[in-house]
């Protein structure tokens, strides 16, 4: 078997990052060695960006003499395909200068996963939160996606999520050539990753192995649960094309890529709602101490929902890169990445409203002081009812990333890199809700709401509940069901960031220091969200002014539940367009601006609802960041032990502010203005202003790598890290008012004055590289200073913090002036207690290439991580306040992939396990709940018919693993969501 010693450029590529952002071009001999496709020592490129380059990227003749240990031969094994990708990833990890995990594609377009979220979860210590059955948000070392910083080609990315958490399912794996997860930072990395930094890279055409290459991937898709959901799509497709070429004597490179995903969205779900009401249901005094004491009362859930979900998700991804190297000392690269992720989905079924404290409750079943079962009967005061729902949800997301990068070898010892980038994201989500209720007789001249409602249920923890309804037969009876309300709730957000970056590096001719890097980066970010609302009718009964709609047979279809849900009562699925056209023959009525209620709202049709929430939740956030760093790259010997790494510090100056609406009671002297939403509803109560803060941070970091033997090394890293608050939590949804005594009080869900999360972290790892794999063990510790919580601040200085409040008010009785005083401001703050996160990670990769045929195709890739934290929060969503672990933390996370390849045939099965954890509710984004443990199994098999053509079969979620959540204790069921298996069959073509 042919073996190599790695070239200098090979080691450089492994340590440095994205080839398209290197500081200089290597000489022809080194380039040829790096481009040799058969050499495993050509590691996968990662996306660390221009600032991560070191002296190793210079031509070999310009480097200081290599130490004796570096010149020793290294054993490498020739492998291809998936096994090759694993070895490439290990090489990149081995020669990197931080604690990291690497992921590489053997060729552009060859990663098999649906998105980068799936691909990243195969790395040690990485887990995912599934939404709609797909991995979207990733968690690193027990921390949620909001603490994960993400870049593409070394550039910060904004998100469609409305926060800072990147939705990785919007990044097609076919367009990503490599990825890295950096668990320890260094000064040259952009700040923001308290949990870690994920860096994605698209192709660098001049670094491609071939002068010309083309790859096509076509697959059909089938979901085996779609047949259980009326109106759902069974089949979908996945198509991708990519091209890379080098021209003009390899001085000009071009890469193009396109990937399309057209997949059915399918789920059947039960959703338990939070315990927001209370009532004495057992006639006993409860033994409760502390602030949650509520003697005599038990907590009651708002209700629950049973739904069929279906629809189509379409993602179109585009990638382009143009790279020009007219001379050896200069490289210019322009690249673009675009993703369009559109989904249109329905949610049908029924929503149960238990009726709260005014309902009549019989035979209650309790879990502690919370009611988890019983019979609820409607009274004249209660709102107990069952609503039939036919929701129509549309979500149109767009991600754009553009960049221009120049690298210049100014002299033999001095290099410069300049980068300019634009990252944009937008989301247009429209939630259309159609409510129906049960009438005594839908054919009556004046239909009456049926108030004879009785609901019996018993939760079964993480299994489906038992339930019965007095109106069960009516849910599918066209003579009983009437449409009673329609609502549209648009939510649009946009996020845009422009950044400029300059990085410089100077080499030393020294026995201990390799080079000095320093640079500066400036970014300007604007985030905006826009909420609005339109409603017609009444979801709790029948309105006399907006009467309900009689349904006709053409509008409805009777739907039966199937599978595990088959014992639930049938219901009517309503054709939304036919119903609306019949209800509003001229289309949905457009609101007309007319003076409405005393709340200062110009309301269509004289509604009495106060729509101020829609304007208060709309606004903009502005963020400017100026960062500078200096970092010394170390290349020394400690006794006889080679020592490499870096030490540096990053200074970050942040200026953040947000638009804000202050309730000034419509007083024009205090700046009150008319504010109009897109439906024409005008609010005149508020005065707009902009408030914010400036702050400076210093972030030191240290990374040391001790090469104790030719095959073993120990890494130590220490750093101060930060993550800014979710961008939407900086919005100014503030309400402040003055009472009759002149006291100013206010509240806000968010806070423009929030500062980042900070932590001090330490990493210690041991890496042992064997001939055909590696064994890695790591310890980590983070001490987090604080988290965001909502607190009441007494004697808050409203005027000093930018609030537009009066200096005095007029006593309505005496007419005298009353000087205003500061009262209480309830808002989000980040000075609540922090705590530690600590854990251990183990990883083992083995390619058994030295075994005799046919066993030489066997291999295993396994990892396990244990994470614990003292951080806990209290949750009262399940009634009594109970402790809840840190969001995103699973104590145990494990990944196992078994693979085999022989004479063109490759197969592998992968399992991802995470123990129970805390995250946002699947169907209710504002609720943080407990999730049950889950194991997701995927399978893939492929056969390479010839050098160009291959066939592939793939199954995602092989065991049909559901998502299950609960409120504090498993007895209080949250969401039980079943997605089905996804089957893929297709072919690949490469030339």
List the helices and strands and how they pair.
Elements: H1 8-16, H2 28-35, H3 81-95, E1 100-104, H4 116-120, E2 126-131, E3 134-140, E4 148-152, E5 155-156, E6 178-182, E7 196-201, E8 212-223, E9 235-247, E10 252-272, E11 277-279, E12 298-300, E13 303-327, E14 330-353, E15 360-367, E16 370-377, E17 385-409, E18 414-438, E19 454-460, E20 463-469, E21 481-507, E22 513-531, E23 534-537, E24 549-550, E25 556-559, E26 571-574, H5 576-583, E27 601-602, H6 612-616, E28 619-638, E29 641-663, E30 675-676, E31 682-683, E32 686-706, E33 712-723, E34 734-738, E35 743-748, E36 757-770, E37 773-793, E38 808-810, E39 817-819, E40 821-847, E41 858-869, E42 872-875, E43 882-885, E44 892-902, E45 905-914, E46 917-920, E47 928-931, E48 934-944, E49 949-956, E50 963-966, E51 973-978, E52 982-990
Parallel strand pairs: 4-7, 35-40
Antiparallel strand pairs: 1-6, 2-3, 4-5, 6-7, 8-9, 8-52, 9-10, 10-13, 10-51, 11-12, 13-14, 14-17, 15-16, 16-19, 17-18, 18-21, 19-20, 21-22, 21-23, 21-24, 22-28, 25-26, 27-31, 28-29, 29-32, 30-31, 32-33, 33-36, 34-35, 36-37, 37-40, 38-39, 40-41, 41-44, 42-43, 44-45, 45-48, 46-47, 47-50, 48-49, ...
Brief description of this entry?
5% of the residues lie in helices and 53% in strands. The chain is mainly beta.
Describe this structure in words.
The protein is mainly β and about 1000 residues long. It has one domain (about 10-440, about 485-540, about 595-990): Maltoporin, Chain A (Beta Barrel). It contains six helices and 52 strands. Strand 48 and strand 49 form a beta hairpin. Helix 1 crosses helix 3 (about 80-95). The longest helix is centred in the N-terminal third of the chain and has 15 residues, at about 80-95. The model is unreliable at about 1-80 and about 590-610 (pLDDT under 50). It is found in: Cell outer membrane. This is TonB-dependent receptor. It holds the Pfam family Plug.
């Amino acid at each position: 078997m042919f073996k190599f010693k790695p070239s200098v450029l090979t080691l450089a590529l492994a340590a440095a990052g994205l080839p398209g952002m290197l500081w200089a071009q290597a000489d022809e001999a080194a380039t040829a060695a790096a481009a040799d496709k058969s050499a495993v020592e050509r590691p996968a490129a990662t996306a660390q960006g221009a600032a991560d380059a070191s002296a190793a990227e210079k031509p070999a003749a310009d480097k200081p003499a290599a130490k004796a240990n570096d010149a020793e031969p290294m054993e490498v094994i020739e492998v291809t395909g998936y096994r090759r990708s694993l070895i490439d990833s290990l090489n990149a990890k081995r020669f990197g200068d931080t604690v990291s995990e690497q992921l590489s594609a053997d060729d552009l377009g060859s990663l098999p996963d649906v998105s980068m979220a799936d691909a990243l979860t195969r790395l040690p210590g990485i887990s995912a939160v599934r939404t709609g059955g797909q991995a979207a948000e990733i968690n690193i070392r027990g921390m949620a996606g909001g603490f994960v910083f993400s870049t593409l080609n070394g550039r910060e990315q904004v998100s469609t999520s409305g926060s800072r958490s990147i939705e990785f399912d919007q990044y097609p794996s076919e367009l990503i050539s490599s990825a890295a997860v950096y668990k320890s930072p260094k000064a040259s990395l952009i700040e923001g990753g308290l949990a870690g930094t994920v860096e994605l890279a698209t192709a660098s055409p001049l670094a491609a192995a071939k002068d010309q290459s083309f790859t096509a991937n076509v697959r059909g898709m089938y979901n085996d649960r779609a047949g259980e959901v009326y109106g759902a799509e069974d089949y979908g497709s996945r198509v991708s094309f990519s091209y890379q070429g080098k021209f003009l004597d390899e001085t000009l490179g071009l890469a193009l890529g396109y990937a399309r995903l057209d997949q059915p969205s399918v789920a059947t779900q039960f959703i338990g709602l939070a315990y927001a009401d209370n009532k004495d249901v057992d006639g006993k005094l409860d033994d409760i101490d502390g602030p949650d004491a509520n003697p005599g009362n038990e907590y009651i859930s708002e209700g629950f929902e049973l739904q069929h979900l279906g629809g189509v998700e379409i993602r179109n991804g585009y990638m382009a890169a143009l790279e020009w190297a007219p001379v050896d000392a200069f490289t210019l690269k322009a690249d673009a990445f675009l993703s369009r992720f559109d989904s249109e989905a329905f949610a049908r079924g029924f929503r149960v409203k238990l009726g709260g404290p005014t309902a009549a409750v019989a035979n209650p079943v309790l879990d502690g002081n919370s009611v988890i079962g019983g019979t609820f009967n409607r009274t004249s005061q209660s709102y107990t009812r069952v609503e039939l729902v036919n929701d129509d949800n549309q979500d149109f997301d767009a991600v754009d990333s553009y960049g221009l990068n120049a690298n210049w070898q100014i002299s033999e010892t001095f290099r410069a890199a300049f980068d300019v980038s634009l990252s944009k994201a937008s989301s247009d989500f429209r939630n259309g809700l159609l409510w129906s209720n049960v009438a005594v007789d839908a054919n009556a001249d004046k239909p009456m709401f049926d108030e004879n409602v009785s609901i019996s249920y018993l939760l079964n923890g993480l299994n489906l509940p038992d339930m019965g309804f007095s109106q069960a037969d009516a849910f599918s009876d066209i003579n009983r069901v009437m449409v009673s309300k329609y609502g549209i709730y648009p939510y649009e957000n946009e996020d845009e960031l422009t950044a400029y970056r300059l990085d410089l590096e100077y080499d030393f001719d020294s026995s201990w220091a390799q080079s000095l890097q320093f640079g500066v980066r400036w970014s300007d970010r604007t985030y905006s969200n826009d909420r609005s609302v339109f409603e017609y009718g009444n979801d709790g009964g029948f309105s006399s002014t907006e009467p309900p709609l009689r349904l006709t047979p053409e509008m409805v279809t009777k739907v039966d539940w199937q599978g595990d849900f088959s014992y639930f009562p049938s219901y009517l699925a309503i054709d939304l367009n036919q119903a609306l056209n019949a209800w509003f023959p001229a289309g949905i009525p457009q609101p007309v601006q007319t003076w409405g209620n005393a709340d200062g709202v110009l309301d269509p049709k004289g509604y009495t609802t106060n729509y101020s929430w829609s304007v208060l939740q709309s606004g903009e956030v502005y963020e400017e960041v100026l960062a500078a760093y200096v970092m010394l790259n170390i290349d020394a010997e400690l006794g006889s032990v080679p020592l490499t790494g870096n030490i540096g510090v990053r200074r970050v100056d942040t200026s953040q502010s947000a638009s804000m609406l202050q309730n000034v009671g419509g007083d024009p002297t205090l700046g009150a203005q008319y504010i109009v939403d897109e439906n024409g509803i005008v609010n005149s109560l508020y005065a707009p202003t902009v408030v914010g803060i400036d702050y400076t941070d210093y972030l030191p970091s240290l990374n040391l790598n001790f090469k104790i033997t030719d095959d073993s090394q120990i890494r130590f890293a220490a750093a101060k890290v930060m993550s800014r608050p979710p961008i939407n939590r900086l919005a100014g949804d503030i309400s402040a008012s003055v009472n009759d005594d002149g006291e100013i009080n206010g509240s806000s869900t968010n806070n423009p004055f929030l500062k980042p999360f900070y932590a001090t972290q330490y990493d210690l790892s041991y890496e042992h590289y064997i001939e055909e794999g590696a064994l890695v063990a790591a310890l980590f510790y983070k001490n987090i200073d604080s988290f965001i919580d909502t607190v009441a601040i007494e004697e808050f200085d409203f005027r000093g913090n930018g609030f537009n409040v009066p200096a005095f008010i007029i006593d309505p009785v005496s007419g005298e002036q009353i000087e205003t005083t500061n009262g209480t401001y309830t808002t989000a703050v980040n000075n609540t207690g922090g705590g530690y996160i600590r854990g251990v990670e183990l990883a083992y990769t083995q390619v058994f290439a030295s075994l005799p045929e046919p066993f030489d195709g066997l291999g295993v890739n396994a990892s396990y991580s244990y994470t614990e934290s003292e951080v806990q929060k209290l949750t009262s969503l399940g009634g009594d306040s109970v402790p809840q672990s840190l969001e995103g933390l699973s104590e145990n996370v494990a990944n196992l992939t078994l693979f085999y390849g022989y004479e063109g045939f490759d197969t592998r099965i992968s399992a991802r396990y995470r123990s129970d954890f805390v995250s946002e509710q699947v169907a209710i984004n504002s609720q943080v709940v407990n999730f049950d443990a889950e194991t997701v199994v995927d399978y893939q098999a492929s056969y390479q018919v010839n050098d160009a053509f291959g066939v592939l079969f793939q199954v995602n979620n092989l065991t049909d693993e559901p998502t299950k959540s609960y409120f504090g204790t498993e007895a209080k069921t949250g969401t039980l969501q079943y997605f089905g298996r996804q089957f893929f069959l297709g072919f690949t073509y490469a030339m």
